[in-house]
Design goal:
mainly alpha, 2 helices
Length: 109
């Protein structure tokens, strides 16, 4: 094996597809549970008195950051999985094209 790359295309594609599906599931959970969190906090159940206002100031930024990161994780996982599948396909096309070129050189074409 040394300095050669061995690629199991079916396994790599499956892994990429699984990663994309995991990203889609993370995104779906973000929409469902994250939406519920945002909706519940929008009514400010902690109250609007001085203590509730202080809590709001401290909480809101953390909530928005957490929901934004959660959304980004799902999106990036999905994109990474898609990129893995595309990369496998591009590698196979390149390998086949190079093999064809080598065969033509060897045949004197």
């Amino acid at each position: 094996m040394g300095d050669q790359l061995w690629l199991d295309p079916q396994r790599a594609r499956r892994g990429g597809a699984d990663l994309a599906a995991a990203g889609a599931e993370v995104s779906a959970r973000r929409r469902r549970a994250g939406g519920e969190i945002a909706a519940a906090s929008a009514v400010r159940p902690w109250g609007r008195d001085d203590i509730g206002a202080a809590f709001e100031r401290g909480y809101r930024g953390f909530e928005q950051t957490a929901l934004r990161v959660w959304e980004g994780v799902g999106r990036h996982l999905e994109g990474l999985g898609t990129d893995v599948v595309r990369s496998v396909d591009a590698t196979l096309r390149t390998d086949a094209a190079n093999a064809d070129r080598i065969d033509r050189v060897a045949d004197g074409r």
